[in-house]
Design brief:
seven-stranded antiparallel β-sheet; mainly beta; globular
């Protein structure tokens, strides 16, 4: 049953379950009855010890020259860009402006937090690294599970997993099997409600290699995940795996700079950034342009027409992964929405929390002008993925690929979960 457009905006329209920390808005978290997924004993002290030690090692490895605090209370460590090793040459500026407008849908470009007036930055020649706020973690997961995007769920080599009843990933997804050197598009910047601090809701692009019989991925998107971001606000994220999501850690796989792998080059936008303002159903619409490009062996990420950093291609053909094609190209490209559901039947939103329907414009989340790069020099083709819904009563995608409109290939996407 579709929710009334204005119900999402009313305090108390959803009651969140109890995570390690309360949701900061007017809908306070409440303790929920015990659920089957939470019956297993949790060794909080051991988890805290492992996770704290990991992030201490990560921070100790940095050459920090200045530490600042953002307007949202995030701690940023500034390091010399050269302290990360020899920095690769970035690609040329994108040939297609990711701020493309459409007269029927007035939207503005969301502003990264370090571009806001009064934002404090590091010295010239330094780049920002988001420091993990351990006080915001609930330590309900082991270090391995904390760093994992799949939370122990096996991801197939050629398709998204089939959800089970509980502790699953739920998708409104699309993928296209095609040799590609990246992709680009524009997503709307909603701030979806997330029921539990252990769960997440995201919209993203993924470039996936399958040459070794398991996924190697570069993923970039917009996500609410309290355990990673430290709050219930949406953040830019990057993620990689070189081993089919089976191992997490330095140069193996993980989010942002939670593990070694990502090389930061921009001084304003970084993995973990938030942007302002957010899109509002029936109100202002904000957008984030994302481009991923394989260039000279490395997977570069562009956000809001700025090359912000890259994953070195050497991550994908390291020991144990010899013969991977990812240092040259990917085999699959996809755009999708994803919710991790530890509740069994979560009320977490995807996108704006509204299903695609007759009144999409200004109300429902979207991804537009979706393209993939079809050769190394940088030529682009309109994306034409196969779309599907793992749980259509919870989340849906309404795809219009090769639409012939100024939005090119686009999709409306979202839903209220079980709420």
């Amino acid at each position: 049953m579709k929710r009334n457009l204005f119900q999402r905006l009313l305090p108390g329209s959803k009651q969140p379950t109890f995570g390690p920390f309360p949701h900061p808005n007017s809908r306070k978290n409440v303790k929920a009855p015990a659920k089957p997924l939470q019956k297993k004993d949790i060794n909080y002290e051991q988890n805290k010890k492992e996770i704290t030690a990991h992030f201490k090692r990560q921070q100790d490895a940095l050459t920090i020259v200045k530490t600042t605090t953002t307007s949202k209370g995030k701690t940023i460590d500034w390091i010399p860009i050269g302290s990360q090793g020899t920095i690769a040459t970035p690609p040329p500026p994108p040939a297609t402006d990711l701020e493309l407008r459409d007269a029927r849908h007035k939207a503005t470009q969301a502003i990264p937090e370090l571009a806001m007036e009064g934002a404090e930055k590091g010295p010239e020649g330094t780049v920002p690294i988001l420091r993990k706020n351990l006080e915001k973690l609930g330590f309900t997961q082991s270090l391995d599970m904390y760093l994992s995007k799949t939370k122990g769920n096996k991801i197939g080599s050629t398709h998204m997993p089939t959800p089970s009843v509980a502790g699953v990933h739920r998708y409104a997804n699309s993928t296209q099997s095609v040799t590609n050197y990246g992709g680009q598009g524009v997503i709307s910047g909603y701030s979806p409600y997330v029921q539990s601090s252990n769960d997440f809701s995201l919209l993203q692009i993924g470039c996936l290699g399958t040459s070794l019989g398991y996924y190697q991925t570069v993923e970039v998107g917009w996500q609410v995940y309290q355990e990673i971001g430290g709050d219930f606000s949406p953040h830019l994220f990057t993620y990689f795996t070189n081993n089919g999501y089976q191992q997490q850690g330095n140069n193996l796989g993980g989010y942002n700079r939670d593990v070694q792998g990502w090389v930061q080059v921009d001084s304003t936008i970084f993995p973990g950034s938030t942007f302002t303002p957010y899109s509002v159903p029936g109100g202002s619409q904000e957008e984030i342009g994302i481009k991923v490009q394989q260039y000279q062996g490395n997977w570069w990420v562009n956000v809001q027409n700025t090359w912000i950093g890259y994953y070195p291609g050497s991550l994908f053909n390291s020991a144990g992964h010899e013969g991977s094609t990812m240092p040259d190209h990917a085999d699959v490209v996809g755009w999708w929405g994803e919710v991790y559901d530890s509740e069994g039947r979560t009320t977490t939103d995807m996108g704006s929390g509204l299903f695609p329907g007759a009144n999409d414009v200004g109300n429902v989340a979207y991804m537009r002008n979706l393209q993939f790069q079809n050769n190394a020099p940088g030529n682009m083709s309109d994306y034409n993925g196969a779309a599907g819904n793992s749980d259509p009563d919870m989340y849906q995608i309404d795809a219009h690929f090769n639409s012939g409109t100024t939005w090119g290939s686009y999709a409306w996407i979202g839903g209220p979960g079980a709420g």
